[in-house]
Design goal:
By secondary structure, the chain is an alpha/beta fold. It is built from 13 helices and 13 strands. The chain has an eight-stranded mixed β-barrel with strand order 6-7-8-9-10-11-12-13, surrounded by six helices.
């Protein structure tokens, strides 16, 4: 169909209005969507097909793209691939009247932000695009901050390097048991990063410093060496859960036959948070397959804590799923949480996946999760993280 192109403006034309690229080969639909988006305060450029959209996307710094899935020249999936292969990382939203599994899977693989089924209410479309723009802005701010810090040679960077070095020198690993409630036995211990350096006492701050300094790989290797030194003294039947930063999956040392954890691979569960940027790891499937060949198992951490849960789940096909503590807190008082956790437990059983509920702090939470079929539990009710391998209280 003939292309219908909306008015193309610039940031100077409309102040700070977010600039969207709308792609649809049906002129009437494109005009209706354009009116909705403009009423939401967006600046909108329109492309009447995939080829035109590729030209516009590579020439203009859009804040997000919203595209029809089915188009005769270059369809939405091909457009998304072309955008990603061009190195562009703006959010991409699909609109489709004919959803199917293959397109949904490909949308996940190439990091689509949302997959919306027509007809979409105007208020929903505006809400989704506002969220997409906010996430893109946040990602740019973080990327710019990291770049500025990496290129800095001033006192702030020097101080961070000094503090990070001190924290690394004083690093240690705390262990927290994961128990099987029905049998009152220890299934595993989760290794948790700690340091005696007071300026990095918060593990998140420690990891953030590694990211800012470009030392994530070095920190990951140091953590794995510490864990490898502890494992010979662990209870013989207990597994060890090891948290991974997404960039750890790119480190060849992790899957090296001579790597620190490889001799213990059959006792190791590699725990990947759903917040990790797995979509940016090249050859993720092959990397995970190699780790499994060596004997490692894979866990998805923090399921339920954020938007990326389903895409992470699909990418990793985990052996273990851990429900986020936000789902567990006061679960005995929430019918919604009970329904969600019960559904996850049932799904895990159907897929032969181990389920772990973390963040158990009260007997009421413990009993509620157990009544839903969740037998593997972790939390301060049984033991806080400690040096060595603490015995849990049942």
């Amino acid at each position: 169909m003939a292309a219908t192109v909306g008015t193309v403006g610039t940031r100077s034309d409309v102040g700070l209005a977010p600039h969207l690229l709308l792609v649809d080969d049906e002129p009437a639909v494109a005009r209706a969507s354009e009116r909705i988006l403009r009423s939401g305060g967006f600046q909108v450029s329109v492309a009447g097909g995939g080829r035109e959209a590729i030209e516009k996307a590579t020439a203009t710094p859009f804040d997000a793209i919203v595209s029809d899935l089915s188009m005769p020249d270059v369809d939405g999936r091909a457009l998304l691939r072309a955008v990603r292969n061009s190195g562009l990382d703006m959010p991409f939203v699909f609109l489709t009247g004919s959803p199917d599994l293959d397109s949904a899977i490909e949308a996940i693989e190439f990091r689509a932000f949302r997959y919306l089924v027509k007809p979409v209410r105007g208020v929903e479309l505006i809400d989704v695009m506002n969220k997409a723009v906010r996430w893109h802005k946040l990602a740019r701010v973080r990327k710019d901050a990291a770049r500025d810090l990496a290129s800095s040679t001033g006192e702030d960077r020097d101080d961070l390097e000094s503090t990070f070095a001190a924290a690394t020198d004083r690093m240690w690993m705390a262990m927290q048991p994961i128990i099987c409630w029905q049998s009152r036995t220890v299934l595993a211990y989760e290794a948790l990063l700690r340091t005696a350096e007071p300026r990095m006492s918060n593990p998140t701050k420690f990891i953030d410093a590694a990211e800012k300094l470009g030392l994530t790989r070095e920190l990951g290797r140091a953590i794995r060496r510490h864990i490898a030194e502890l494992l010979p003294s662990a209870p013989a039947t207990a597994l060890a859960f090891v948290n991974l930063h997404p960039l750890d999956l790119e480190d060849p040392e992790l899957s090296d036959p001579n790597g620190a954890l490889t001799p213990f691979a059959k006792r190791i569960v590699l725990e990947v948070t759903e917040r990790a940027a797995l979509d940016q790891i090249p050859g993720l499937g092959a990397r995970i397959a190699r780790l499994r060949e060596l004997g490692f198992r894979i866990a998805v951490d923090d399921l339920g804590a954020g938007y990326a849960g389903l895409s992470t789940f699909a990418s990793l096909e985990p052996d273990v799923v851990k429900a986020d503590m936000s789902l567990i807190r006061d679960i005995q008082h929430s019918a919604v949480k009970q329904k969600v956790v019960g559904s996850i437990v049932t799904l895990c059983k159907d897929l032969h996946i181990e389920f772990v509920a973390e963040g158990i702090e009260t007997e009421a939470e413990r009993d509620c999760v157990a009544s839903l079929g969740g037998d593997n539990l972790q939390g301060y009710l049984f033991s806080p993280p400690h040096r060595g391998f603490p015995a849990p209280a049942y």
